[in-house]
Amino acid sequence: MDLFHSNGEVSGQLISPKKCQFFQEALSTQRLRVIKYLLGFSMGFLPFIYLGVPLFLGKLWVCHFRPFIDR
């Protein structure tokens, strides 16, 4: 977290650990606990929407972008 605090002091862009998430694909339970403890972030899960765009793992299908096509 020191890196995030140092960057925030220099840039003026502070992060809120309560609003942050990290995503993983294949980590051990022990490693996940360590990351959560060190960062203070919660763990996020795919799929999710970021800035109105669906983020997911795998092949792109038309159904993933149906809301954009319909607009």
Task: Characterize the structure shown.
With 71 residues, this protein is of the alpha+beta class. The chain has one domain. It is built from three helices and four strands. The strands form two sheets. Strands 1-2 form a two-stranded parallel ribbon. Strands 3-4 form a two-stranded antiparallel sheet. The chain is flat, with a radius of gyration of 16 Å. The mean pLDDT is 85.
What's a concise summary of this model?
The protein has 71 residues and is α+β, with helices and mostly antiparallel strands.
What are the secondary-structure elements, in order, as H or E?
Answer: HEHEEEH
End-to-end gap: 41 Å
Shape summary? flat
Low-confidence stretches: none
Main attributes?
two-stranded antiparallel ribbon; single chain; alpha+beta; two-stranded parallel sheet; 3 helices; 71 residues; flat
Please outline the helices and strands:
Elements: H1 2-11, E1 21-22, H2 29-39, E2 42-43, E3 48-50, E4 53-55, H3 66-70
Parallel strand pairs: 1-2
Antiparallel strand pairs: 3-4
